[in-house]
Amino acid sequence: TFAAAGNAMASTALLTAASVRGTQLLLALTVPNCTVASVSSSNALDSARAKVGDTVTIAVQCDENITAGSATLGAHTVSMGSAQWVAPSHASAISVTATINTSDSASALNVTVSGCIDLAGNVQGVPHVLSSAVGRVDVDLTPPSLVTVSVASSNADPALAGIGDVITVVVVGSEALEASLLAVSVAGQSAVVTQLNATTFKADYTMTGSEGAGPVPFTVAFADLTGNTGPTATSTTDASSVVFDDALPVVTELSVNSSNVLSSSVARTGDVLKAVARFNEALTSADETIGSVP
């Protein structure tokens, strides 16, 4: 009888056919088993990382046909549709997506599949939590910052630059920075960026004389390994700066005097001539010649 057959059933998988008023009745007692097969992010830099706006996709695999279920991805709960159990893998697959936003936590994304229902109405009892063996997606919501920004010239005076001098900008990030997204301009021109380590970069630019005299401006655009962009830097953290000077110094006053006791405007053998020159700016050195004598 039906009752007798029911008493004989075990809690494990069992399919039994019974004739009830001439209709075949299929008894299915096995609960579906749905698991996370893979997880990945749409992040342009790394599919194992995600920032605000990135889409995370999980592939859910079940061992039989299901009509419904749900997946939790961080702060998002997504309803799953039905999936057909097909050959040759004899496993149904569902793709579930969620877009990361500011309500997510900055950590490894928690992924869980639960409540899967098969055609007989059996409900998955134990939720499946994403295994580290399958993979993980780390959510990063925090933009990086620059803890150090400095600028110097290859000139003997690092605060001054002339034509041919190299301007070097050095930056240190608060975390590892993405080399492909770090761009530096000096005096409006692109600088050559070199990565020194995960957080430290330098950028070099050689002054050509077309940049214009005065303080040398610069910009640093940067982002972390997830693609979160930091605020563009336009000033230093240590008050360093470089002034570009491409103009030759100009003599504004020149005089020659003699030690002659009768007149400073004449000289005889043994008198000492003294030349005095004034310039429009400070000099580091100067050579003077009186007649043929330096």
3D architecture notes:
With 294 residues, the protein is mostly beta strands. It is built from 1 helix and 23 strands. The protein has one helix spanning 2-8; strands at residues 15-20, 23-28, 34-41, 49-50, 55-62, 66-73, 76-80, 92-99, 111-118, 128-129, 138-139, 146-153, 160-161, 166-173, 183-186, 189-190, 192-195, 200-206, 214-215, 218-221, 243-244, 251-258, 273-279. The chain has a 4-stranded antiparallel sheet with strand order 7-6-9-10, with no helix packed on it. Strands 12-14-18-17 form a 4-stranded antiparallel sheet, with no helix packed on it. It has a 3-stranded antiparallel sheet with strand order 3-5-8, with no helix packed on it. A hairpin with a 2-residue loop joins strand 6 and strand 7 (76-80). The longest helix has 7 residues, at 2-8. The model is unreliable at 1-27 (pLDDT under 50).
How is the topology of this model organized?
Layout: H1 2-8, E1 15-20, E2 23-28, E3 34-41, E4 49-50, E5 55-62, E6 66-73, E7 76-80, E8 92-99, E9 111-118, E10 128-129, E11 138-139, E12 146-153, E13 160-161, E14 166-173, E15 183-186, E16 189-190, E17 192-195, E18 200-206, E19 214-215, E20 218-221, E21 243-244, E22 251-258, E23 273-279
Parallel strand pairs: 4-11, 13-21
Antiparallel strand pairs: 1-2, 3-5, 5-8, 6-7, 6-9, 9-10, 12-14, 14-18, 15-16, 15-20, 17-18, 19-21, 22-23
Concise summary:
2% of the residues lie in helices and 41% in strands.
Helix content, binned percent: under 10%
Topology as H/E string?
Answer: HEEEEEEEEEEEEEEEEEEEEEEE
> N-to-C terminal Cα separation, in Å?
128 Å
Write down the Rg: 39 Å
Strand content: 35-45%
Give the tally of β-strands.
23
Mean pLDDT: 83
Helices and strands: which structural class?
mainly beta
Instruction: Enumerate how many helices there are, as a single number.
Output: 1
Shape: rod-shaped
Q: Which regions are unreliable across 5 or more consecutive residues at pLDDT < 50?
A: 1-27
What about the largest sheet? Answer: 4 strands, antiparallel
